[in-house]
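Work Package 3 (structural annotation) set out to generate three-dimensional models for the target panel prioritized at the project kickoff. During this period the team completed the workflow that converts sequence records into discrete structure tokens, so that structures can be stored uniformly alongside our sequence database. As a representative example, we reproduce one entry of 267 residues exactly as it appears in the project archive.
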Amino acid sequence: MRRSYLMSPPEHFVVEYAINPWMDTNTAVDTELAVKQWEGLRETLVRLGHEVHVLTPEIGLPDMVYAANGAFSVDGVVYGARFKYPQRMAEAAAHRRFYDTLGWRFVTPSETNEGEGDFTYLPAALGGLVLAGHGFRTEVAAHAEAQEALGRPVVSLRLIDPRFYHLDVALAPLDDENVAYYPGAFSESSRRVLRQLFPSAIIATEDDTLAFGLNLVSDGHNVVLSSEATALAVRLREAGYTPVPVELTELKKGGGSVKCCVAELRG
């Protein structure tokens, strides 16, 4: 299926503060290389037949490249983000302005949440199921707020490892009803829920999860993922998917990879 995505180029990307375990303010960022790698990702999605909208980056918002965090949309309804850290709060308004141009219904959040960083959607699972993470960046109260906004059942999953601070670095939808995930990122109760909901899920190794392998974008057949996640790529191919490796080493310095850079527009 042809998908529609939103991305924002890393023209102002630097690591000048640390709000996740991956960020080191002593690490130099090659902005030119970051832009080149980002453009390679954008071109890959377009080559696979998808539409990519571009959100203009703003000076002073270096993490705006992680476009997935700005909102979460289902069937033309947008649940906006309310960022945990002040360094990113202004990104929410930039995303709202974009969605206003689409004419979609925008729901302003009262609860702290970071968009698709902690929400994902499987349209064929139970007739349309939202999986939602909490524990580090999104408050669990936001899950109930999202359910009211979107009219879809929301399953809460508790993240317990700070290295995997968002759901989208610990779990990824592979198609409309199945996922890949790393069990060690979740509480025992959440692992039981995942086993019950997704008995055929692909289980990632810790090494591939640390390589941001689960921070992927899949159209149900092609799976665009970090080139460092080699074992996961093998598992995906064995399961009938086509892995499409890309290199995003510079953007990994900010704690993100493929999915962090790509918001899906579900109109």
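The chain has a mean pLDDT of 98.
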